[in-house]
Amino acid sequence: MTSITFHGGVNDIGGNKFLVKDKDTTVFMDFGMSFSQEGEFFAQFLNARGSNFLTDMFELGMLPKIKGMYRRDYAKHVGFDGNEETEIDAILLTHAHVDHCAYIQYLREDIPIYCSEESKLIMQNFDETGTDQYLTHKEKFQFYKNKTGGVSRATGDKVAYPRNIQIFQSNKEFSIDSIRVEPLPVDHSIPGVHAFILHTSNGSIGNTADLRFHGRRKDDTEKFVERCAKSDLDILLCEGTRVNKTSSLTEYDVETKVADIVNNTKGLAICGYPIRDLDRLMSFFIAAKNSNRYLVIDMKQAYLLKLFTESESMKGKYPSPIDKNIKIYIQRGSWGLIDKDLKKFSDKQLYADYAMWQRPFLDYPNAIDYRDIQKKQNEYIFFCSDFRLQDLIDIKPDEGATYIRSLTEPFDLEMELKEEQIKNWFTHFGVIKKDQDWHQIHVSGHGDGEQIKKVIDGANSKKLIPIHTKHDEYHKKWHSNVQSVNQHDSVDL
Ligand SMILES: [Zn+2]
């Protein structure tokens, strides 16, 4: 028998967790976080409790209670000893957006994670520039014997376990016991996204992942649909984030529109875009070239570009962090020593102002700080993340500055409030006026209705299950055999 159980990612946008069982083989496609479920129960100061994390998540139905699946330091607090034989043979990861990958951090380290090189590098960036634990998990909640023979509590970083990461190649089939897996690249708003076709002993299952036709990799999505048509699919799990939308600009439109705006800007051009969307970074990079400016990126993006440049198989796909059209912005460190008299504080103190991963960038030939930007504002497109708006206090944009926002528009109250706050910052510095808006130039990572219809028509699957959407009525309009499922439902092949 072959079955799919939907532990998340249905009647919801994201939180994908699809459990496929075929004979003795069990795999998950994605293991992501649901923003809507998190929002239903949690808030900034109300979260799942430390060592009680799994109990809390099981209680609220946010994670499936499966033995042998979760990291031992957490599992032992829910009555699993953590050493049970695991029934999970693999996690197949479509891409490294948190709604698909976030809960990987709670898995036991010996469960193999199959992902693309790009997804691995993005997760590495999360780990090394923040506190995430995708590639390595650091043991928490342990007691150990101390030097005096007493018992101490480990704080969490003493023992680290690398996870079992298996990199797959695009279009190169591999097997997990009885399941043959085809990883097929598709176009979305982060590098390395792969849809899957699983060939099981009772038929084949397609999973679109998140996709579109209006980005830089439209051909990939087209080839995936062709491949589906040739595979005689029994079931297609088909995304529908934007099925109710009718049109889409393309990534190339973003590139031209941004260049136009920058060419008409007398002062500093400031921009915001999703930090891991390297195709969007490309749009700004090209726009910078076409307007004779430098693109100023932050250290997190520089780190990501460094990882991609150092990877044998990714080298040259995106600009190197020392590209002649790129400058790296050195923000004020925690003590703010960057503009202080170093004769008093020494270089060593200045470096200590930054995290280990940030320090090498201080010596890069293309490193700049607010003083460089202040002096020649019309030479730069300055990337300013929503979390680093304080950098504007140092830079103090002159008259004639502009702000291009290349991020998704708010779709709930919380996001509207946040956007109001961002507006306050740019109004404060006179970049926009109270009654005037910034330039909103963005295209989504998801195809509109017409594009999804094209996937449905082209894939020619016997059955369709809507995923990653709250609007299954469109799938039903476009396919005669649609089965809508609820969270935790199972479907047999
Ligand atoms: Zn998603």
TrEMBL record:
One GO MF term attached to the UniProt entry: hydrolase activity
Organism: Marine Group I thaumarchaeote
Pfam families the UniProt entry points to: Lactamase_B_2, RMMBL
Name of the molecule in the record: MBL fold metallo-hydrolase
Keywords on record: Hydrolase
Gene3D superfamilies found in the cross-reference section: Ribonuclease Z/Hydroxyacylglutathione hydrolase-like
Keyword Hydrolase: yes
Chain ranges of the Metallo-beta-lactamase domain: 14-273
Entry annotated with the keyword Hydrolase: yes
CDD domains named among the record's database cross-references: metallo-hydrolase-like_MBL-fold
Record-annotated membrane-spanning stretches: none
Source domain of life: Archaea
PANTHER family: RIBONUCLEASE J (PTHR43694)
